[in-house]
Write a structure and sequence with these properties.
Blueprint: E1 5-6, H1 8-16, E2 22-25, H2 29-34, E3 41-42, H3 46-50, E4 68-71, H4 77-87, E5 92-95, H5 98-102, E6 106-112, E7 119-125, E8 130-137, E9 140-144, H6 150-159, E10 163-168, H7 180-187, E11 190-194, E12 204-206, E13 211-214, E14 217-223, E15 232-236, E16 240-244, E17 252-253, H8 261-278, E18 286-289, E19 305-306, H9 307-313, H10 321-331, H11 339-348, H12 356-359, E20 367-368
Parallel strand pairs: 1-5, 2-3, 2-4, 4-5, 9-10, 10-11, 11-12, 16-18
Antiparallel strand pairs: 6-7, 7-8, 8-9, 13-14, 14-15, 15-16, 17-20, 18-19
Helix pairs in contact: 6-7, 8-10
Length: about 375
Amino acid sequence: MNGNTISVKDLQKILSSQEPVFILDVRPQSQRDEWHIPGSTHRDAYLQLNGGDYTALDDVMAPSHTPVVTLCAAGKTSLIAAEVLRKKGIKAYSLEGGMKAWNFAWNTAEIVLPKSDLKIIQVRRAAKGCLSYVISSGGEAAVIDASLDPEVYLNLAKANDWQIRYVMDTHVHADYLSRTRELAAASGAKHLFIKDADVDYTFTPVMDGDKINLGQTNIEIIHTPGHTQESTSYLLDGRALLTGDTLFTDGVGRPDLKANRAEAMQKAGQLYNSLQRLLKLSGDTIILPAHISKPVSFDEKAIKGVLADLQGSLDLLQFSKEQFVEASLQRIPATPSNYLTIAELNKKGVFAAYQPSELEAGANRCGIA
């Protein structure tokens, strides 16, 4: 904490350590509905605070002896809110940069497979629900779908005495700027991607059915087109499956990005075929997706599913191909305005001229339920 403000890093530490904190979100309801910090309290006070009406916070009942963190979109209105609360004798701090800065907050959860030295760290971007993975075996590590600064993954590897040997993406992402190329350069790791992926940079190609050795673990490459043409799933020792945006714990990937209706229908058919292929795996396969459709709590509980359970709970996985295609197209949510720009930048592999905090703002909408 610095004076009347608190940094994202410091709030992240408080939440990670389960220390008491009262987070007061003063944004308009529409912004709150888009994305938020789990456990925060909301007061739609934006217009009143900016209009000089400070009675909007009169009914805020913060727990005694608990610091209050005020939150808005960019950290300006929350300064007003914090000042109003301090005048009431409440210890209050404004979150620096607001939700745009909170976009980069993260936490982790671990997945340990019994009778295996395979360790999986799920790295979760709290605001957007983006999930990346550091997997390790025998002192070697691979990073999949890096969405944060390379230092995050380098520090996790260093803390566990792992050497990052491979980095890879499950597909060309549209909701965040991939940091995989940066991580490859920073770590010296080999950058893997499915052969014929339509990107403008060089990588080490892998093919459907290939098996990559990582310590005592093997990673099987399963090409699962549909969400995008290059979408790929990674099967770890036949027990855990990194599904990218092909299969989520609460839905499946949307097939319409950069596609007209006819192309979306074709991609939905591909997605159905890919899902049917995955459903042939063992029912106890652990499913580890690249996203969840809501903000992530600092609870250390891994976001995962079991294949048989998902097959029983997701109606899309029970449909015929014709039903699946029709339902998929009917359920597609609106496409965020930044998605096509992000996808194009990830195709190029260069985004130095852009501000990630601006492009990536907002929840992800890569799935349909």
